[in-house]
Amino acid sequence: MEDGISTDRIKLNVGGKLFETTVSTLQSGGPDSLLAALSNRQHHSSSTPVFIDRDPEIFSVLLSLLRTNRLPSTSRRFTDQELSDEASYYGIESHLKSAMLPNPLSGIDAAIVSTIRPASDGFVTAFTAIDDGSVWIAHGGQISVYDWNLSHAGTVRTHLDSITSIKQVTSSPITAVASDVASGVHFYNFANGRRVGSVEWIDRTDPRIYKARVTAVTDSPDLVFSAFDSHHKENCVLAIDKSTLQVTSEIGRQSGNSSKSTVPGTLTYVKELGVLAATAITSGAFGFSGYIRLWDPRTARVVWETNEPGSGRSSRFGDSFADVSIDVDELTMCKICSKSGDLAMADLRKLGDDPWVYLRETNPSLRNTSGGISNSVVHCYKKQVFVGRDGGLEVWSRVAQNGESDREIGEESFRRNYIDKVQDSERGIISKIEGGGERLFVSREEAEGLEVWQSSVFSGAVLVL
Predict the structure, then answer these.
(1) What is the pLDDT of residue 310?
(2) List of residues 6+ apart from 422 with CB closer than 8 A
(3) Side-chain half-sphere of 215: how many Cα atoms within 13 Å?
(4) How many Å apart are CA 351 and CA 22, to the nearest integer?
């Protein structure tokens, strides 16, 4: 028995400090990790401890992580970057990542945990959040990338003076960028900082199509979609092949001479339905107007659309949307009304003449009294709807109701809560909200940096009626 125990034990000398553990603990880091390789090496050789010239205090933290799958309290003595660097050296970064990822995002329990302030120009002009919680930030003409741990992974300087659209378009570090003051959509390889391609909207039969700017970018598994707007307002969406960076088709060309034909301000590809969603919103002396349009990109055919005001399809004629968001996972669409401030949702699988369900707050103290607010943004994410009204941030969370499935949307399916403090709302008007991983990213007008919101360790409570 003793022989069996002694055989499994292993000693390591890390930075002059002796550690004793077991082969199975080291091998739990994975077969490709450095620790697993060292354990095999010593296991079949002498009992002399293997020397590793690294920080012993951080190694103690990582060894505890392998033993318990949790970070010990002593990990707080080190920065996230220090832990990440050492874990990467030992080949156990995936274990550290699992232990450090935020709790599931629950808007009710969310709070600001940090503000990312890129060096040089700290004003965020555009950003795109990634599924692992990382984020790509455009500030001026530069792109800065922050990884899953929000550590700065690098910055690339583009040829543009200002970037207003950005989208990571491949699993490799290729990003599409564009500006509303310069023509074309441009592709940069973040690995080497080089521009690998550019696409302009060209129509040799129409000389008016010249140096068209790009207002929105999104992608599907095979294509990049970019909304182009020419100087005389003619506009369209170009489909661009990811592998060749060549235009494959032109979608939805229109004159742009009215709110029903203006260039899309946002594009979203809904993979499960195979449709491209475009929204355009304009505002003026007579209020808001615009459209939501769904195309089949294979045929460039419109499969559904609504125009506000004027289509006659809305049950609230004249209360046009101020912003629209689409949840590609839940297959829902939400809008915030410009006059009443009310929030409405629709099921993308059940679109008709008037698909909207207007959410109603049953708590009198939280009922919406904010009609007339001129700056509103909305974002659907993880079965929640996040709303920015001027500088205030709120969340509408799904609640369980008797007889209602998770897919059904009723007037009382969501409950409203404020998730910011007074001092938070005073930092500036919210310009964009976007979720990535278990984080929520928020930018504000005329404010430096990008806010990062996460849930507390006590999140996860569910309200049951």
Answers:
(1) 58
(2) none
(3) 21
(4) 59
3-class SS string, the chain: CHHHHHHHEEEEEECCEEEEEEHHHHHCCCCCCHHHHHHHHHHCCCCCCEEECCCHHHHHHHHHHHHHCCCCHHHHHCCHHHHHHHHHHHCCHHHHHHHHCCCCCCHHHEEEEEEECCCCCCECCEEEECCCCCEEEEECCEEEEECCCCCEEEEEECCCCCCCEEEECCCCCEEEEECCCCECEEEEECCCCEEEEEECCCCCCCCCCCCCEEEEEEECCCEEEEEEECCCCCEEEEEEECCCCCEEEEEEEECCCCCCCCCCCEEEEECCCCEEEEEEEEEECCEEEEEEEEEECCCCEEEEEEEECCCCCCCCCCCCEEEEEEECCCCEEEEEECCCCCEEEEEHHHCCCCCCEECCCCCHHHCCCCCCCCCEEEEEECCEEEEEECCEEEEEEECECCCCCCCCCCCCCEEEEECCCHHHHCCCCEEEEEEECCEEEEEECCCECEEEEEECCCCCCCCEC
Nearest alpha-carbon partner for 341 in 380, 383, 290, 387 = 387
Tokens encoding 200 = 């302009």
Residue 222 CB: number of other CB atoms within 10 A? 12
The three-point CA angle 144-239-306 to 5° equals 100
pLDDT of residue 364: 64
For the chain, how many residues are written? Answer: 465
240-298 pLDDT, tens digit per residue, is 999 999 999 999 999 988 878 999 999 999 999 999 999 999 887 777 889 999 999 99
The per-residue pLDDT of the chain, averaged, comes to 88
Lowest mean pLDDT among 16-20, 159-163, 289-293, 424-428: 424-428
φ and ψ at residue 338, rounded to 5 degrees: -75, -30
Share of the chain above pLDDT 90, in %: 64
Strands 50-52 and 9-14: parallel
b/e code 430-448 from CB counts within 10 Å (16+ = b) = bbbbbbbbbbbbbbbeebb
412, 434 Cβ separation under 8 angstroms: no
Q: In this predicted model, which residue has the larger pLDDT, 405 or 379?
A: 379
Question: CA-to-CA distance for 393 and 377, rounded, in angstroms?
Answer: 10
* Phi and psi torsions of 11, nearest 5°: -115, 140
> Would you say 131 and 167 are in contact if contact means Cβ atoms under 8 Å apart?
no
Range in 4-18, 82-96, 306-320, 390-404 the model is least confident about:
306-320
Summarised one tens digit per residue, pLDDT across range 35-59 is 888 877 655 455 678 899 999 999 9
